[in-house]
Specification:
It contains 13 helices and 14 strands. With 377 residues, the chain is of the alpha/beta class. Helix 6 links the parallel strand 5 and strand 6. Helix 3 runs parallel beside helix 4 and helix 5 packs parallel to helix 6. It starts with a strand and ends with a helix. 48% of the residues are buried. Bound molecules: pyridoxal-5'-phosphate. Pyridoxal-5'-phosphate binds next to helix 3. Pyridoxal-5'-phosphate (PLP) binds next to helix 3. It catalyses: (sulfur carrier)-H + L-cysteine = (sulfur carrier)-SH + L-alanine.
């Protein structure tokens, strides 16, 4: 089976599997317990993983909070910041092409009296910065939080986080980014850019599922960054996320982050080469009967969204399913026509004939050749 659905999830890296193993069987102590070796070893492993994740994100280890994944992190930041700063305002800004874990949370907050602006996007799903500039200058309805996805999970376009952060920092507005799709694919330094909150997930970078992180820059904009916790309880993770830590998953995430940081240049090169080869083979084979929905610049290497004229995407994927794993878009909104492609101005026919091919550093040129053979059939 050729696996080209790496934006949905990635296979676990063998080094990650090996690192996790002992924490499932031998080192099973609760890292919050204090007086015996088992617990101390578990705690040390958690802290080592935190160091690796922090290095990948460009923040301090104590700014990393382990969660169950990016869905939780996105909920945590939007709900937590909205609640914490409700006395300062009720306006939140996001974009029309976020992951459902942002959009549905924003809709929920609307039912609680918050006002949400969904920024328009251009034809490659990038947020409209002029609209954002106008909003931040509008003092009476100055937002308490701006949340913009860094790299889009369906078409791969990167938002200009540097300019967005500059704007938010100048106007003392908190900035959150969903960085789930970009880790291990582009360089991330949330401190240098001035990002206050970041969400991410381990299973998109060859780590285990059910583990992710929220990073919170502690002191920015001249005052202490805070948010109301989503889960209350035993005060783990500095009180931001109660619950016994999932040590084996954290160890796996830490190892995946270590590898992603270590191999970043090599992975970027490999994925760009694979992507270039895939796009030229597709163009050669299908000429005018395909159209690329993804941009070629400022994008995550490895995500190619392509439209096959007059082909039903679900039928195509079913026909290919014995040989190739692909998807029509986000795994989290299967069945519904893509809100991302629709916000980019693609009509329903175009959406129904679009397919997302998402590669990883573990894919090969031979797999692309084999994919083309299956596709032609
Ligand atoms: N945000 C983006 C951009 C994603 O692609 C995903 C997963 O598809 C998520 C959030 C949700 O991540 P998780 O599966 O860790 O909850």
């Amino acid at each position: 089976m050729i696996y080209f659905d790496n934006s949905a999830t990635t296979p676990i890296h063998p080094e990650v599997r090996d690192a996790m193993w002992p924490y499932l069987f031998e080192i099973y102590g609760n890292p919050s317990s204090k007086y015996y070796t088992q617990a101390n070893k578990a705690r040390d492993a958690v802290e080592e993983s935190r160091d690796h994740v922090a290095r990948l994100l460009g923040c301090q280890p104590e700014e990393v909070i382990f969660t169950s994944g990016a869905t939780e992190s996105n909920n945590m930041v939007l709900k937590g910041v909205a609640d914490q700063y409700s006395s300062k305002g009720n306006h939140i800004v996001t974009t029309k092409t976020e992951h459902p874990s942002i959009l549905e949370t924003a809709k929920y907050l609307e039912t609680k009296g918050y006002r949400v602006t969904y920024l328009d996007v251009d034809r490659f799903a990038r947020a409209d910065l002029d609209q954002l500039s106008r909003i931040v200058l509008d003092t009476p309805s100055k937002p308490i939080l701006v949340s913009v996805i860094w790299g889009n999970n369906e078409v791969g376009s990167l938002n200009d986080l540097e300019s967005i952060a500059k704007l938010c920092n100048e106007h003392q507005i908190f900035l959150h980014t969903d960085a789930t799709q970009v880790l291990g694919k582009i360089q991330v330094d949330m401190t240098a850019l001035g990002i206050n909150f970041l969400s991410c997930s381990s299973h998109k970078l060859h780590g285990p599922k059910g583990i992710g992180a929220t990073a919170i820059k502690k002191h920015r904009l001249g005052f202490k960054t805070k948010m109301t916790p989503l889960l209350h309880g035993g005060e783990q993770e500095g009180g931001y996320r109660s619950g016994t830590l999932s040590v084996h998953n954290i160890v796996g995430f830490g190892k995946a982050a270590e590898i992603a940081y270590r191999d970043l240049k090599e992975s970027q090169l490999k994925m760009s080469q694979l992507e270039g080869y895939l796009m030229s083979r597709l163009s050669e084979a299908f000429a005018s009967s395909i159209q690329f929905n993804s941009d070629v610049e400022a994008k995550i290497p490895g995500i190619v969204n392509v439209r096959f004229e007059s082909v039903n995407n679900e039928l195509l994927l079913k026909k290919l399913s014995d040989h190739v794993a692909l998807s029509t878009g986000s795994a989290c909104s299967s069945g519904k026509p893509s809100h991302v492609l629709s916000s980019m101005g693609i009509n329903v026919d175009g959406i129904r004939s679009s397919v997302r091919i998402s590669l990883s550093k573990l894919n090969t040129i031979e797999e692309i050749d084999q994919f083309l053979i299956e596709l032609k059939k």
